[in-house]
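Here comes my example:
=====
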Amino acid sequence: MDKPLKTPPPYPIASVDHALRAAAMLQMEGGATVSQIAERLGVARSTAHRILAMLVYRDFAMQDEDRVYRAGPVLELAAHSQSSVSRLRARGVPHLHRVVDLLEETSNLVVRTGDTARFIASVECRQALRVGSREGMVFPAHRTTAGLLLLADLSDEELDEVYAPGRYRDRPADRPDLARLRTELKRLRRNGFAVNRERSERGLVAVGVPVRGQDGTALAGLSVSLPSVRYDARSLRPLVATLDAAAHALEQDLAEQD
């Protein structure tokens, strides 16, 4: 059985978590103001300002003349990822909010890089028992709902390249069973959606659908995560229909922007 995706540390340090989340935002989205960071982290502007000042001091961030904070030298990847990830997130977040309003469960937008899946946006529901935000977090793609959907979009040759044995020389246990994975991906392609019933984390169920570009390529995965005690298999069809509608609306927004 797979181990849980990620277990929170026994003694979490909120200030460190805030700084790491802020750095991830700058890296993935290209820039943000103090007010935007404060809103996203749920902290006061003064706290956000101190966090950003420390990131600037350590070269994780830099401030433009227009007072917008951007990724610093340590996070140069932002220059490469800004155009696609920032656009996806900006267009996707309103649709995630609508999914939460309709389903009353946490919604996510996920992209794939190699064999990893990155949560670029997450909107929590308001229920007392809920799945928390994973925005900015990275997990093995084959162990997440959206990651599986994005892997299902690859050809056999592309999948072989992603999971080439040489990439796992130092960590062979992290490489999935490709024969088993291919069988699962074939089923996902046929169904058009993915369901993760406590496979990656005890007590959690996730359902997702792909978000496609104009050429039909899967750009991201749109998913909803909920406690397993609230999941009813009889509600799967309307749940997938809601996600499909949100994904198609996002696809239309992206197409109109292009």
